[in-house]
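S.,

As promised, the PBG run. Input:
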Amino acid sequence: MQFPEYRPRRLRRTEALRGMVRETRLHVSDFIYPMFVVPGRGIEDPIASMPGQARLSVDKAVETAQRARDLGVPGVILFGIPEKKDAVGSEAWDDKGVVQTAIRELKASAPDIVVMADACFCEYTSHGHCGVLTGGELDNDASLENLARVALSYARAGVDMVAPSGMLDGFVTACREALDEENFDQVGILAYSAKYASAFYGPFRDAVDSAPGDGDRRGYQMDPANSREAVREVALDVNEGADVVMVKPAMTYMDVIRAVADDVSLPVAAYNVSGEYATLKAAGERGWLDYDAAVLETLTAIKRAGADLILTYHALEAARLLAKEP
Ligand code: PBG
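Predicted complex:
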């Protein structure tokens, strides 16, 4: 079939025709909303580098999660900003920690919201690295022991899914074994399987004050140049018992999302990270692009690339935009 008998424009003529042959449909149930939780009450502290996002105290986080749920967003993922940091990040596994408290209060007030919690140490350590340092290097296996403590403290608080994000070798096994030993076999694992050493985490590190004091994260996060390695990392996490595997960031790694989606049968998540959010916000605020259209195009593209779930700071505004769409 070729021109002039075949004319692809025939199916683009009206919205009804376009809708009929649309291959990817973004839906509010695809979204997970990330939230930053701080100690205190009544706090909504705007994050300068992420306009529209704020550090929330537990009460405000509960309200916000309920608002997300009312818009149809099925789940949230929590990040904690502790009272005080130390060398090993011990507040991360404190049963009375800010994330643990948020999980308990969320589950008590809105049990239908899927509550996930990021399990990492960079927000909790004085040096900003994602675990215990030995001789200036991230000590993988010592960090795994603490990670298991974090996973268990989240499970005791009632979390639905633990999300280890430190790119430690064996982090899924460490979480799964710890959870199963304590009979938390129904707590799932969202694995940050292919997480790249990306410049696009800048605004997040600002939000949680987690920029590494010394060095960078390239000794554990992946080299942006590699995609076959991502498939390998994902395969390891599948074997270790992950329930959902994730690629992060999303926009500059669409090919990786596709490669992973083609390789595994588990649900695939993609993290549309802080720098991606901030980029669209900044351009939108300057009137350099149509922000709403750019958000929906971006999220549709991430889904088209193969993501079943999208962690995105745009979740609430995208939910509102989708509800308005014809
Ligand atoms: C690590 C973690 C990071 C993000 C999520 N989990 C930061 C990092 O690895 O430096 C980044 C999320 C974002 O940029 O939106 N706990």
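The radius of gyration is 20 Å. Residues 214 and 285 are 34 Å apart (CA to CA).

- D.
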